[in-house]
Amino acid sequence: MAMSQTRSRAGLAQDLRISIARLSRRLRAQSTSGLSITQQAALAAVERHQSMSPRQLAEHEKVQPPSMTRVIAALEEQNLLVRTPHPTDGRQVVLNVTDQGRELLKEQRRRKQAWLSQRLEELTPEERAVLRQAAPILEKLSRS
Fold it and tell me: Which residues form the HTH marR-type domain (predicted)?
């Protein structure tokens, strides 16, 4: 019995991995910003944290500082992110999202929400009820 549970768990893991990856790709496809996935993630992280140093952002996104420097430069060039002097350490800068960057993120979220809402509308009430129960579990998995 333990063997069948292991296979069952492995099968569930595989099915979830494939489905979540597909759903993630479909949601990303709703973005029309022209930003790379890394640029989108960096911009969203700075917005979520309200401001970050370039080093904090690189650590948060788990990339090397030189790579993040290129991402930051591209976002600055598009007027989505701005560097400002650190309030207490003149040697450092702080990154902030511009109004244009906030609007872009807001529009991306709106488009993704609309797409997903439409897909949910195509499901049966029973399927939506199952997803309501699964949402907190998926959130828990995403945090581990």
Answer: 9-140
**3 state DSSP class of 52:** strand
Cα 138 to Cα 122: distance, rounded to the nearest angstrom: 21
CATH number, domain with residue 127: 1.10.10.10
Query: Does 118 fall in a domain?
Result: yes
**Residue 2 contacts by C-beta under 8 Å, 6 or more apart in sequence?**
none
Those residues with Cβ within 8 angstroms of residue 1's Cβ, 6 or more apart along the chain or in another chain? none
Does 108 fall in a domain?
Answer: yes
Tokens describing residue 121: 């509308």
Domain interval for residue 93 = 34-143
Q: Is residue 27 part of a domain?
A: no
Give the whole-angstrom CA distance, residue 47 versus residue 9: 37
Residues of the chain under the 70 pLDDT cut: 1-7
Rounded to two decimals, what is the model's pTM? 0.80
| Dihedral angle sign, alpha carbons of residues 32, 37, 41, 43 | negative
DSSP for 116-133 reads HHHHHHTS-HHHHHHHHH
